[in-house]
Design a protein that fits this description.
Blueprint (H helix, E strand, L loop, with lengths): L2 E6 L2 H12 L4 E8 L2 E7 L1 H13 L8 H4 L13 H4 L13 H12 L3 H21 L8 H9 L6 H16 L30 H4 L19 H35 L1 H13 L3 H9 L15 H12 L1 E2 L6 H4 L1 E6 L6 H16 L4 E5 L7 H12 L3 E3 L3 H10 L5 E5 L9 H8 L5 E8 L4 H10 L7 E5 L8 H10 L2 E6 L8 E2 L3 H9 L11 H10 L8 H4 L3
Parallel strand pairs: 4-11, 5-8, 5-9, 6-7, 6-8, 9-10, 10-11
Antiparallel strand pairs: 1-3, 2-3, 11-12
Length: about 550
């Protein structure tokens, strides 16, 4: 047996030296810190085999009892007592186990072993214990008290059973003692549930079972609250959708802003469209399809502004290709908010029709009985044109008047102006729900984009025959109105730009309307730079979530 010492700075380096000397199967005896780092004692694997052969051939001699080997303790004197005895320190119970530190110390003192001899002694003890386990006999090195207990225990025929029994005994000793009842109960008492504190947070059973998606709809989970589980699930799904939308919105905005930084053409176009009043949703959709460069060839746009004008013109619906309203004929009701110019627009249409087809083929009806003297304005225009104006107070009178004027080529109905959030708006729409009546929504082009959006939704513009843009001469920016019309795919029947009748009634093409919107110039504090553009898209809504169909036109 060849035992060598290896010293290195770290354990890793010391083990590398051991592998170089004895290979990967080297036997490590000990390691300890030293002045140079770490000292490792190791030997070749053949040395272990030699120890096993020697231990197998060596005669077995019963080891003397440790109680007999120990010399009798001298009489205790006050001066020879230990410090623990003199200070009153209590002795802990040993539960039948001898002190291993004392046994090893006695063996070393008795045999006067060297370091290598003590290592051989330990290996011999290990081999004896292993051989006893293989033979199925009790541990020969166990203390006599434990040997007696192992022999007295019924049914213990192997060391494994003895170990299991000792473990159970130790567990029973560690458990707290309980007061035994006077009479043995017929059945073991069930363990009471721990008391629930008032401020304790209790997790509902449905939330604990959320991982099991297959059983979410079962009624047996909450028999006393059958509908609460579904409500909790629906609330959670709504919150997850909101979180998903927020994440998509933020990542989409970051990706779009990064694209603008890499492509200056798109950045300039974005800044210009936002400056003149187009919404961020429409601008993002438009810029995503913008080319990276413009060569100006035949049939191609010269710059990004021309390209954007062509795209917006193709998506803005107008009535220029169809016959004019006065040529089509029929029953038309002009609706809209207060002060948008419904009565004046009705007079312009009536004048244009009377000029071409005569006043005998025209009928005028007013529903504006709310304001004092409101119908007098239309009656004044009727007297100029030579057309009588009829007043309808309810749906029945309106139907009677429509029946009376059924032989007229064109009938115009002037309605009362109401705010888009007025409860009477729905009543007016229901009153006009006649099969022959086609509604025309009049929108003030000078209003804000959000206001126009609200008006379009409240007056059900999608069910109307078309839209009339009024007061475009007062609008500094026409882009907000055109933006709403493009996204909702509404048709522009005509525009008005003044109070003159009928000179200020026009039918403009989509190219003319878009060019008028692009000519607007922001002044003063309303100008934008690149930092303002990033700020708008960082906090703006994601594109196409509200009107995905309208966004697909590009």
């Amino acid at each position: 047996m060849n035992v060598k010492s290896f010293t290195a700075k770290t354990s890793r380096e010391a083990m590398a030296l051991v592998r170089q000397a004895f290979g990967n199967d080297a036997v490590v005896l000990s390691n300890k810190p030293c002045a140079g780092g770490v000292e490792v004692l190791a030997m070749a694997p053949e040395g272990m085999s030699q120890i096993e052969r020697v231990a197998a051939t060596a005669p077995r001699v019963a080891a003397p009892s440790r109680l007999q080997a120990r010399p009798a303790a001298p009489a205790e004197t006050p001066t020879s007592r230990s410090f623990a005895a003199r200070t009153g320190q209590r002795n802990e119970p040993s539960f039948g186990y001898a002190d291993p530190a004392g046994d090893v110390g006695d063996d070393v003192q008795t045999l006067a072993m060297s370091t290598l001899s003590f290592q051989d002694y330990v290996r011999e003890r290990v081999l004896k214990r292993r051989q006893a386990e293989l033979d199925g006999v009790p541990d020969p090195l166990a203390p006599p008290m434990m040997m007696d207990r192992a022999q007295e225990a019924p049914g213990v025929s192997s060391l494994n059973a003895a170990r299991q029994q000792r473990a159970q005994t130790a567990l029973q000793a560690m458990q707290p003692r309980r007061a035994e009842p006077a009479a043995p109960p017929p059945a073991p008492a069930q363990r009471r549930a721990p008391p629930v504190l008032r401020d304790e947070i209790r997790v509902p059973a449905m939330q604990r079972d959320m991982a099991d998606l297959s059983g979410l709809g079962h009624q047996n989970e909450l028999p006393d609250m059958p509908g609460r589980g579904r409500r909790d699930q629906q609330d959670m799904m709504n919150e997850l959708r909101q979180v998903k939308g927020m994440i998509e919105e933020r990542f989409g905005a970051l990706a779009f802003m990064e694209k603008l930084q890499r492509q200056p053409i798109q950045a300039r176009l974005t800044q210009k469209l936002l400056e003149i009043g187009f919404s961020p949703a429409l601008v993002r959709k438009l810029v995503e399809g913008c080319p990276a460069e413009f060569k100006g060839g035949p049939g191609e746009a010269a710059d990004e502004t021309t390209w954007a004008a062509n795209v917006l013109s193709r998506n803005l619906r107008t009535d220029e290709a169809s016959p004019a309203l006065e040529e089509q004929g029929g029953v038309f009701a002009l609706i809209g908010s207060t002060g948008v110019g419904k009565t004046t627009t009705t007079a312009k249409l009536a004048a244009a029709f009377a000029t071409r087809y005569g006043a005998a083929n025209l009928g005028l009806i007013t529903l504006d009985a709310y304001r004092v003297g409101a119908h007098e304005q239309l009656r004044a225009y009727g007297r100029i044109l030579g057309v009588p104006v009829h007043t309808a107070h309810d749906r029945a009178s309106l139907e009677d008047l429509l029946e009376l004027l059924s032989n007229k080529k064109m009938v115009l109905i002037d309605t009362a102006g109401m705010a888009q959030r007025d409860s009477r708006t729905n009543e007016l729409l229901d009153m006009l729900a006649h099969p022959s009546v086609r509604r025309i929504l009049v929108i003030n082009a000078a209003q804000q984009g959000e206001t126009i959006e609200d008006v379009v939704s409240a007056w059900r513009a999608s069910d109307c025959h078309g839209v009339v843009l009024s007061k475009i001469d007062e609008a500094v920016k026409l882009a907000p109105a055109l933006d709403t019309l493009i996204r909702h795919k509404l048709k522009v029947l005509g525009v008005t730009n003044g109070q003159r009748v009928p000179e200020d009634w026009h039918r403009l093409s989509s190219q003319a309307l878009v060019q008028r919107a692009l000519r607007a110039v922001a002044a003063g504090a309303w100008r934008m730079d690149s930092a303002d553009v990033n700020l708008i898209f960082a906090g703006g809504p994601a594109l196409g979530l509200k009107h995905p169909a309208a966004m697909g036109a590009f």
